[in-house]
Amino acid sequence: MRRFIGAIDQGTTSSRFIVFDDGGRIVASAQKEHAQIFPHPGWVEHDPAEILRNVRETAAEALIRANIRACDLAAVGITNQRETTLLWDRRTGMPLHNAIVWQDTRVDDAVAALARDGGPDRLRAQTGLPLASYFSALKLQWLLEHVPDARPRAEAGDALFGTIDSWLMWHFTGGANGGLHITDVTNASRTQLLDIATLAWAPALLSLLGVPAACLPRVVASSDLYGAGCLEFQGTQMGGMLGDQQAALAGQVCFAPGEAKNTYGTGCFLLLNTGPEPKISKAGLITTVAYKFGEAPAAYALEGSIAITGALVQWLRDNLGMIGSAAEASALAAAVGDNGGVYIVPAFSGLYAPHWRADARGIMAGLTRFADRRHICRAALEAAAHQTCDVVAAMERDFDRPLTSLKVDGGMVASEPLMQFQADLLGLDVIRPEITETTALGAAYAAGLAAGVWADTDTLRAQWREGRRWRSGMAGERRDRLRREWGRAVERSFGWV
To answer: Whose CB has fewer CB within 10 Å in the chain, the N or C terminal residue?
Structure first.
């Protein structure tokens, strides 16, 4: 008998609900964008209530399209934009403030203040993370300090902290009427409050950062049957939680040490499975929890987080009016043989891995009268590939072993010129799966494992199918020249703030 699994994929720019069958195939889906709120330069917010409405609407729509009911789902998994931070009222379920998005830089001064005593890596050994505005803890600290009555309410347990996974899970398991206040180990590992070895909230970090333990969610496995669903999910079980990039790692079945994937979305996120022990990076990468399925030990990963890739194409469309769509950018880029000497370093909110330069800002370099919008579009796509190469080089230093290929997913993998350039620049095969919605698929896998739809990860691996492969065809001399020119452009982005 055919079985179905639901996946909530709550991302930075939109929310989706996808119904998968037990063969890992998409049955139906629905998607809805939400507003990006920019109150000040460098600040980025979302309305949590809008996100909740959108998830409910897309779930209802996808179930109608699949011609099934929620009770026909074996379980529902959640995957989410990770470090985005919010507080809400336990009694009413209303947010105390807009969610502060992972890209937001309002806590840069707090980062600098913490780094003055012990440097930017003072918490890395315990959390796997450098000090940066990226992570949740300082965003939570800002909310506690700036939202009226937030701190006393949090100390009393009346205001609840969570990333978007916790917000959705609380509402979809009862909300104010007994909703589960939980987060999985992957999302917890991005807060800078979790001890990455014990997988528990670290009292010393809570004290250092002024975070009340009473407002924190309970940390759970990434795959388990957490509780019965309600609202649109009445009649099924909530059964999986994974941060979006870890979900993509699972969706790409990277379950063995040394296997890696890169997701090209708003940003780019390259994860390498390093096995059952955390490996602390010395090359500017993040150590993160990859997943924890049921009672099995957790797996860890090295991650290279790149803030702006697909968002750069959106910027060309929305801010400059240069293109009408991402597809047009790809077509314009394909119309020229190279970038005409143009490089764009999209450090709109600083540079993340492996540089971690909060003082960097975006630049466009190498402009001449020869350059036109085709070259600028190509430079925008190539920026994603160059930033990925920076991360791969760091990853190979940390893991002490070269990558043999790179699995890819995300919206930008539809771009032929980007994927070919990525293979050329890496000198590796770049492999796109048959099912490209790997983030949602990873959430479905986590839920399906918990519900017994699939027996184990070997079963999942057997389902994975290659969709397209790009092979490198670039001469090494040209590759080296392009990489040198990119490095010069990156250096020019430093020190603007």
So the answer is: N
